[in-house]
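FAQ
Q: What does a multi-component entry look like?
A: The components come first, one per line:
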Amino acid sequence: MSDGSTAKRVSRSKAEMRAESIEQILDAAEYLFSRNGLHGVTLRDVAKRVGVHTTLLHYYFEDKQRLFEMVFARRAGVTSGRRMEALEKYEAEAGDRPTVEGALHAFLDTDLDLYVEGGEAWMNYAAFCARVSNTVEGAALMDVHFDPVVLKLVGILKRALPDHSDEDIFWGYHFVTGSLMNTLARTGRIDRLSGGLCHSDDFSAVKQRIARFMAAGFLSLKA
Amino acid sequence: MSDGSTAKRVSRSKAEMRAESIEQILDAAEYLFSRNGLHGVTLRDVAKRVGVHTTLLHYYFEDKQRLFEMVFARRAGVTSGRRMEALEKYEAEAGDRPTVEGALHAFLDTDLDLYVEGGEAWMNYAAFCARVSNTVEGAALMDVHFDPVVLKLVGILKRALPDHSDEDIFWGYHFVTGSLMNTLARTGRIDRLSGGLCHSDDFSAVKQRIARFMAAGFLSLKA
DNA sequence: ATTATCTATAGATCTATAGATAATGC
DNA sequence: ATTATCTATAGATCTATAGATAATGC
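Then the predicted structure of the entire assembly, as tokens:
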């Protein structure tokens, strides 16, 4: 505020202008796509939200599909990388005796923390991912960006559960990711269902429960 | 086939024609909405799939939003009713001692069976619901149609888990429904992730695991 | 006489491209 | 000399409505 008030553009380099415009467009697109999906958002909607002309989106992103993919890709590396680190750190600490719950804490809590710490933009990205995940084309995007971390998690789970079949591990992961995505979506349904007792935005309530809950689920599969 | 081959319309009453057209339109819309969402489908797409004119959709359904809601509503009563029955039956059998796993079997298995037995149309509806569930407006539709069954389930779970807080029960349900919706979506992600070991369409594999998995999760919340 | 279905069309949008303009960059 | 941004516009669609047509229903 204190420095932006003098003029709208205070001699920024082209590279800076470019970077800033791209960020603003991605933020606006992320916000809108998270609420209305790929087809529920027009390029005009995005341009209007940023305050630029529609053609600028074509200039930077070619077309709508590309813009959508760039929204996905921008933060995917960050969340993926953080979780990968957390899993590797856990692996090193746990040595020969990794536990399901330990691995899930590293995987899930790290992610939930990121959205809480990251503020509104990251929360929008979370909802964007959740929306996309229940979609055939969206799931294909997930393959590209998230397979490495997920397979890392699966690898640790297999060592934690040497008597479980691979199918059990994968179906368990399927349940975990469903629950996580339902959390990230923040639809407000749990709020109304619980009569206001729970809140969609309350990721800390989820964090308190999800790893323990899912770990118990995994263990139950081989009784 | 044997009687439809003589002519396209073998003297049906207007009521029959109406009913049949409505069903065909709903089937086509359900199929398309499940894959592309509300905004990813045009009325032309639906009309073309049925082989009628776009205006007929307006004639029967007013507008696109209404058509969408009718698709949701058509089968919601069936699945809701079946699960309600199953829960009541379980309640009667279990008497004073309902278990989490018993209630979840009634709730989840009954639903999964319906999609498997119902064939392609029901599988489309399942994917439709899954897609809709990760959406703010979709979640609001769920309130209307599914709150009674869900609250019935929650009531039994509370009696099965008298020492758990209501928050624990609701968050547990939140995880359950996330996992179920991820199943109904059938995105193919688990297939690729598992290298072909698991299949999105394999609801029986899910049925074998989900109730037990989730029940253990619930129990773990109060340690 | 009613109603299922189609024809014609208005009016609004949407995506995408070509080309102009106005800055920054050496 | 390059590039960020805008103007103008083509061409395709989309939703929705008014009104015509061709069946069924008493």
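Q: Is there any commentary attached?
A: Sometimes. For this entry: Residues 14, 17-18, 21, 52-53, 55-56, 59-60 of chain B lie near DNA strand C (CB under 10 Å from a C1').
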